[in-house]
Design brief:
- Helices cover about 40% and strands about 15% of the residues.
- It has about 350 residues and is of the alpha+beta class.
- The chain folds into 3 domains: about 70 residues, Orthogonal Bundle (Helix Hairpins), CATH 1.10.287; about 90 residues, Phosphorylase Kinase, domain 1; about 160 residues, Transferase(Phosphotransferase), domain 1 (Orthogonal Bundle), CATH 1.10.510.10.
- A 5-stranded antiparallel β-sheet has the order 3-4-5-7-6, covered by helices on one side. It has a 3-stranded antiparallel β-sheet with strand order 8-10-11.
- A hairpin with a 2-residue loop joins strand 1 and strand 2.
- Helix 7 runs antiparallel to helix 9 and helix 7 runs antiparallel to helix 11.
- The radius of gyration is 25 Å and the shape is elongated.
- About 35% of the residues are buried.
Length: about 350
């Protein structure tokens, strides 16, 4: 039975969500939505409803609004999905439909607050609240001290923090961050390229990590977890972002917690519960660079000798003998890259 204007008007009057108008969209929801919209637009078009021009014109306008709302819900993954999280802080309400990303300590929910997207980082256990509070302190300081500086681009954008009461009545700490679009973690890079990537590609990823660490160390902060899951890259502009400041602290303090998944990537002083310093972060950054090059505990034989030597100097077990100045390592690395590859050029890096 063909859809009539009267049927369409009644359907939209009863609707409270785009799903009430367009229904199930099938295996290709974008195409399904377009197909449904086109069919309904024909029913609402004034040319097909002589004598009902005003009603048809208003129905067509409302249909367009429902279509745009459906497109937004498809874009953020919420179309025809149940809420996974709803949280209110002050005048803001965050609603998320997508399954969370599960980290070591937290679950990360992509949510919408009005027209803006936000990432809610929710402590899985109330016992982790102090770690999320450490992240909030670090990111607030970074946001304040680096405002307007280009290096600010290498750090997450903190929005706010609050506590959320779960179904058991426990209070869980929540940090709200701005999502970074068109990015990949270095864990995803390693999964895509298990044999490693070209040193010239790994170079800019290492450069961005060193710049973030040099900046943080200059503020007296240790990141404490420079691991594949915690470095984001954006291939389109070669930016790198150092994530997850839950493990951070002041230089000279022991690291309070570690990622069990990457326990072997920490330097000896962490397991010994000794003071963490800038050298601690540089050890983990160098270890990550070794992985990107296709190595394990040592850089692979294919690594250019000057890069091999620089990484080995960052991986010395004794922290007092290890490189500890990220800016100096970055400067030395730039010199090495110039000698090996010439002046810097933009080298496209592709992820599937």
């Amino acid at each position: 039975m063909a859809l009539t204007l009267d049927n369409l008007i009644q359907q939209m009057l009863r609707a409270s969500e785009p799903e009430d108008v367009f229904g199930k969209l099938g295996g290709n929801p974008e195409e399904g939505l377009r197909r449904q919209y086109r069919a309904m637009a024909v029913a609402a078009h004034p040319d097909h409803n002589p004598g009902q021009w005003a009603a048809a014109n208003e129905a067509f306008r409302q249909l367009k609004g429902w279509y745009e709302a459906a497109q937004r819900k498809l874009a953020d993954g919420s179309y025809d999905r149940a809420e996974r999280i709803r949280a209110t802080s002050g005048g803001r309400t965050y609603v998320g439909y997508a399954d969370p990303i599960c980290g070591d300590l937290c679950d990360l929910f992509l949510t919408r607050c009005g027209t803006d997207l936000a990432l809610l980082k929710v402590a899985r256990s109330p016992r982790s609240s102090d770690l999320l509070q450490a992240e909030a302190r670090a990111l607030r300081r970074i946001d304040k001290d680096l405002a307007g500086q280009p290096v600010r681009a290498h750090f997450p954008t903190f929005i706010e923090s609050f506590t959320l009461r779960d179904t058991t009545g426990s209070q869980r700490h929540v940090n709200v961050l701005r999502p970074e679009h068109d990015t990949y973690t270095l864990a995803e890079v390693l999964q895509t390229y298990p044999r490693g990537i070209h040193p010239a590609d790994a170079a800019w990823m290492f450069n961005r990590t060193l710049a973030a660490l040099g900046t943080a160390h200059g503020m007296g902060l240790v990141h404490g977890a420079v691991l594949p899951e915690h470095v984001l890259i954006r291939p389109s502009d070669h930016n790198g972002i150092l994530l997850d400041w839950c493990y951070s602290g002041s230089i000279g303090e022991p690291i309070k917690a570690i990622s069990r998944t990457y326990a072997d990537d920490y330097p000896p002083e962490v397991a010994a519960k000794q003071a963490a310093t800038s050298a601690t972060d540089l050890y983990m950054a160098a270890r990550l660079m070794v992985r990107l090059l296709g190595g394990g505990d040592e850089p692979p034989d294919s690594t250019p000798k000057p890069i091999h030597a620089l990484l080995r100097a960052c991986l010395i077990p004794a922290p007092a003998r290890r490189h500890s100045d990220a800016w100096q390592v970055l400067d030395d690395f730039h010199t090495i890259l110039g000698e090996l590859y010439g002046p810097p050029t933009f080298r496209p890096f592709r992820m599937p």
